Amino acid sequence: MIRLGVIGHGGRISSVIKNCLREVEPDIRVVGIIDPDEAGARSRLDDCDKNDVIFYDNLDEMMKNAKPDALAIGTRCNLHTPYAIEASKYDIPLYLEKPVAINMEQALSLEKAFQNSKCQVVVSFPLRVSPLCLLAKEYIQKGSIGVPVHICALNYVPYGAVYWEHEYRNYEITQGLFLQKATHDLDYMSFLMDSPIIRVAAMATVGQVFGGTKPSGLVCSKCNEAKTCLESPENRKRNGSGWHTDDHPCVFSSDCGSPATGTNEDASSALLEFASGAHGVYTQVFFSRRDAQKRGAIISGYLGTLDFDWYPNDMKYIRHHASFTDTIKAGEGLSHFGGDTELAHDFIDLIRGEGKSRTGIQTGLQSVYACLAAKQSLENGQFVNVRQLGE
User: Fold this and answer.
1) What is the mean pLDDT of residues 272-282?
2) Does a structural domain hold residue 110?
3) Domain membership flag for residue 118
4) CATH number for the domain including 92?
């Protein structure tokens, strides 16, 4: 039996345990939890964990008494770093949700904590290890497109309104959607280009779609505009346009923050320079709906172009100097397009001492440094150099 300690047993990490880790290793048990919302955390447990799990106030106490074989951190984003720093003191594998830090102070502290740590980390970057991304990497490595010179990545999010509902809209916790969302994408872009991002210029559109001046605490069931509002449960169901179709907080309320106090972006983009001399563009849009959904990249070299999209889960390989184009179709219906399952295998292998992490703490930190540079560029309107690990 594998004994797992969990810090922050929320919806995301409980889903990873139930649907991914347990799929790879059915004999894994949650033996200890640190979570101030004990009732909520218990409600998310599998039946096999409910009788034996014990709740603890701190990590030292849980390590001493529960004696876990591994740890998983699924707290809100602002707590990822402090708990990961504590976990770095122990020589057991750690599954760490992204982003690994939300500001430069946290990132530097985290990098320092892991410099001499024996704790091996699987950062939750499933896109990098998804089958479709790995296939694109394979094509690049065998020279199918020549040397990659340019990458354009797109993320048209069909469920983007979620970032103005519930805790996602708490800017103090998320620090914006480069850190909350693009941390995935900038990581896989660097992976595909086989080069770190060294310079960023970014731009955002804020407060043009979501956010506003509706009263604090307003929910759809208490609003007299629910009949006409496109974000009401009734209209989301009717139009097939909603991710959450139950009663929810207003996405146009003052609770969403403001450009002055900090708020998530309706859309944001970045121009990226890689150490290899290549460059790229990344764009994320959060008011897209239905068939406008798209998440993927176009990578070009002199010999050809790869164009993949995770939603249909397919990739086109276009030869530039021959009249052939191949379309490759991958499987569908997998969590994070199959990447979560791959990370589950990596984590279980780490626990068993049979493998290495493909998304170590270094990948999490380098992505955060790129996202922080983008965030700084949003604020000052200039190109910003990206801190590199060890600088």
Assistant:
1) 98
2) yes
3) yes
4) 3.40.50.720
* For residue 350, pLDDT beyond 70: yes
Query: Model confidence over 2-11: pLDDT tens digits?
Result: 999 999 999 9
Same domain, 351 and 249: no
Task: Name the residue among 98, 116, 120 with its Cα closest to residue 107.
Answer: 98
Query: Is a pLDDT exceeding 60 seen at residue 30?
Result: yes
Alpha helices in 5-53 (DSSP H): 11-16, 22-24, 38-43, 47-50
Helix (H) or strand (E) holding 300: strand 294-300
Query: With the CA atoms of 45, 47, 51 and 54 taken in that order, what torsion angle do they form, in degrees rounded to the nearest 10?
Result: -20
Last residue of a domain, one of 211, 241, 256: 256
User: How many Cα neighbours within 13 Å face the side chain of 229?
Assistant: 22
- pLDDT by residue (tens digit) across 307-339? 999 999 999 999 999 999 999 988 766 656 889
Query: Residue 117 is encoded by which pair of tokens?
Result: 């740590």
C-beta atoms surrounding 306 within 10 Å = 25
pLDDT digits (tens, 9 = 90+) for 225-261: 999 999 999 999 999 998 889 999 999 999 999 998 9
Sheet strands (E) in 91-187: 94-96, 121-123, 150-156
C-alpha–C-alpha distance, residues 84 and 270, integer Å: 28
Residues 6 or more apart in contact with residue 380 via CB below 8 angstroms: none
Q: Which two tokens stand for residue 357?
A: 């992490």
Q: How many CB atoms lie within 10 A of CB 342?
A: 23
Q: Which residues contact 7 (CB under 8 A, 6 or more apart)?
A: 33, 34, 35, 59, 71, 72, 73, 74, 75, 83, 87
Give the pairing of strands 304-309 and 294-300: antiparallel
pLDDT in tens, 45-70: 999 999 989 999 999 999 999 999 99
* Token output for 120: 């091996």
Asked if the structure places residue 294 within a domain, the reply is no
Q: Tell me how far apart the alpha carbons of residues 143 and 301 are, in angstroms, rounded to a whole number.
A: 9
Q: Quick one: 9 and 112 in the same domain?
A: yes
What range does the domain containing 235 cover? 220-256
Side chain identity at residue 368, one-letter code:
V
3 state SS of 204:
strand
Residue 267 tokens read as: 């859309």
In a domain, 268, yes or no: no
Sheet holding 121-123, edge to edge: 54-55, 28-34, 2-7, 70-73, 94-96, 121-123
